[in-house]
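To the team - MRU complex, inputs and output below.
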Amino acid sequence: MIDHIYWKEGVLYLLDQRQLPFRKEYVECRSLNDVTGAIKKMIVRGAPLIGIVAAYGVVVGAREIIQRKGHCSDADIQNISRKLLITRPTAVNLAWALKRMQDAYNLHKDDPDMLNILTREAISIHVEDVEGNRILGAYGSDLIDDGDTILTHCNAGALATGGYGTALGVIRAAHEKGKRIKVIATETRPYFQGARLTVFELHEAGIEVELIPDNHVGLLCARRGIDKVIVGADRIARNGDTANKIGTFMIALCAHKYHIPFYVAAPQSTFDRAIDNGDLIEIEERDGKEVKYLRKTLLTLEDVKARYYSFDVTPAKYISAIITERGIIDKPFKKNIQRLF
Ligand code: MRU
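Output:
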């Protein structure tokens, strides 16, 4: 398994995902600014991983303040949490993890061991995510048939989570059961999560993978080249509407047109119980420069405007089922999501 995040003696080490698959470089986070910067600059990405990193970020921030002035107040913790929360707006796992850290702080703020307790809470969030993904993977693997060709978008693997994966967790679990699977990975412009991360992970796991440009999905669905689609999620509303990497909605439409099952795999930390439907999900808009440049190479005219929405929302009606660590959620989603969580 890829060692992409670890905690050692008060320092958070993060594998710089911008450099993959060519270089394995770690970024050391010793201050709150290091952690917020790592999330904003996409040194780390993927909804569950962002939540885990933010949880460790609370510890890094609290530790920094204690070293500076001897103690950490309620206002300090709120301030740390607020700075982490605004790093990326769409993945709800971030707010979920910060709430867990806030609850742990509220319970133990007068304990002299408070910093260690917060550290243990962050580690629990991390470990539980991996355990949950394994369970989710096992449930989801029952939906996969021997010989399936599965399309996935972006990267919802070990690199996007604590270390196993959601969509790729299902694929890993099916592979571990001996099912022969071929994965079609979309490139996922402009950050290339598919080309750089999904291909890398599956290759390391010995799972057959083929890379396609994003615009090939329609043709492959029409020509019966895809048996199933499995993607991850950044936020799921109470009715099942799902935000995920931009382009997911178009894939869902193609899958629907050709009666290809379209599954979303996500842990309970991705469900937003506060919102009724996907229209209420804030969509991150990133700098157009990330579209205009491929690393340092300019791809178009320097002064042209470029637009980059990082996510879209797939309406629940295009989703066949949602795979979670509590089981597989079938339709009607509203009723079944409420019953499960
Ligand atoms: O912009 P990113 O790379 O953070 O987007 C990641 C995705 O959209 C993933 O599919 C999603 O977070 C699920 S990861 C288990």
